[in-house]
């Protein structure tokens, strides 16, 4: 049984792990969904983040508890889960390629976040709106196309049947990329519509992921939180051009 620790109330980086756990049919406890008086929420998470007896404390959530082991960092968690959940190739070169793509997805996530917090994460959005507007313009005009072009190229060069990035079977990075596309569509509806017209394979991957039976059941279960403006992806119309 896996235990996933993340902030309550948002999808955030924890959602990339949730999607892998759901697609892999794993048994897991989402601690963010448990009430605090029943061993859930922020106090349960802080026990590992701040506890003096934790030998290898994670820096920040998400982190995964597997028996007595704690695994932190989203890409690292997915690297670990890829084998047991059959969401990564078996060969070493394939595992590293999927991990490399996941790290590139993580770079895109940081850039999307920094459109609304370009100066400091500790400041409110309203305290950095002018800088956010400039950063968002560059993100729309240059960074979204650069990342989308790259992933479209990877999809084009995968010669096996199906809509996936690596080989003929879905991997965890397909789930993560679909999640980022969904987040950017929420945060930048106009810019993403324009960009995705030029990247049909990327849009096809997004749609294929969210039509997967287990992912669809998860999305319809009420356990998948909606995007909101306390999250990584935030919808501020003034940033969409």
TrEMBL record:
Statement: the UniProt record of this protein carries the keyword Transferase: yes
GO molecular function, one term: glutathione transferase activity
Any one Pfam family match given in the protein's UniProt record, by short name: GST_C_3
Segments forming domain GST N-terminal: 1-89
EC identifiers of the protein: 2.5.1.18
Superkingdom field: Bacteria
Matching PANTHER family: GLUTATHIONE S-TRANSFERASE (PTHR11571)
Name of the protein described by the UniProt record: Glutathione S-transferase
Species name: Steroidobacter flavus
Taxonomic lineage: Bacteria, Pseudomonadati, Pseudomonadota, Gammaproteobacteria, Steroidobacterales
């Amino acid at each position: 049984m896996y235990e996933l620790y993340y902030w309550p109330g948002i999808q955030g980086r924890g959602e990339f792990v949730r999607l892998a756990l759901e697609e892999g049919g794993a048994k897991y406890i989402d601690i963010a969904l448990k009430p605090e008086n029943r061993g859930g929420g922020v106090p349960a998470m802080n026990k590992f983040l701040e506890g003096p007896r934790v030998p290898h404390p994670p820096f920040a959530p998400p982190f995964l508890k597997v028996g007595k082991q704690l695994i932190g960092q989203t890409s690292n968690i997915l690297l670990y889960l890829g084998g047991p959940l059959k969401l990564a190739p078996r060969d070493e070169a394939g595992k590293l390629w999927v991990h490399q793509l996941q790290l590139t997805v993580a770079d895109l996530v940081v850039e999307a976040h920094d459109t609304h917090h370009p100066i400091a994460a500790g400041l409110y959005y309203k305290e950095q709106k002018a800088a956010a507007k400039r950063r968002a313009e560059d993100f729309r005009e240059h960074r979204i196309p650069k990342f989308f072009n790259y992933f479209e190229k990877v999809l084009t060069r995968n010669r096996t049947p199906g809509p996936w990035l690596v080989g003929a079977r879905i991997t965890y990075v397909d789930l993560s990329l679909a999640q980022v596309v969904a987040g950017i569509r929420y945060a930048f509806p106009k810019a993403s519509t324009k960009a995705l017209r030029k990247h049909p394979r990327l849009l096809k991957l997004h749609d294929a992921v969210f039509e997967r039976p287990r992912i669809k059941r998860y999305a319809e279960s009420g356990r998948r939180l909606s995007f909101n403006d306390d999250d990584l992806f935030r919808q501020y119309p003034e940033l969409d051009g």
